[in-house]
């Protein structure tokens, strides 16, 4: 039997949850993952499959205006606007990294940096 998640509806709880890894734990990767998830409404599998080249143009040094993906679950094309909250969180995270390559996963595994973060590891952020 699968588990279901419930949305956070209280604005104060949502803000506290969003800022926990930026202010208290100071883990930019986790902060960026949460902000991107909250602001894009993408499923976790789609978030973890994102590469830097989908959100950031290293040649111009600017973030893209949209993310275009093929959703894992539905196999449908989806385009999501990158808002200022996403840009801020990704920039905060990007500046914490030594180097990034366009083809790198945004959220890599710490044990295997050329692989994406696993769903089980990502879900640990929320609990």
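Sequence proposed for the structure above (127 residues):
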């Amino acid at each position: 039997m699968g588990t279901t998640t419930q949305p956070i509806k209280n604005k104060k709880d949502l803000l506290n949850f969003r800022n926990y890894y930026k202010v208290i734990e100071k883990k930019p990767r986790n902060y960026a993952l949460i902000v991107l998830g909250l602001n894009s409404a993408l499923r976790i599998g789609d978030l973890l499959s994102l590469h830097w080249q989908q959100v950031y143009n290293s040649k111009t040094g600017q973030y893209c205006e949209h993310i275009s993906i093929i959703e894992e679950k539905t196999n449908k094309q989806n385009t999501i606007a990158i808002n200022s909250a996403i840009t801020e969180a990704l920039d905060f995270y990007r500046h914490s990294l030594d180097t990034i390559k366009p083809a790198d996963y945004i959220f890599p595994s710490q044990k295997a940096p050329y692989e994406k973060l696993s769903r089980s590891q990502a879900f640990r952020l929320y609990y």
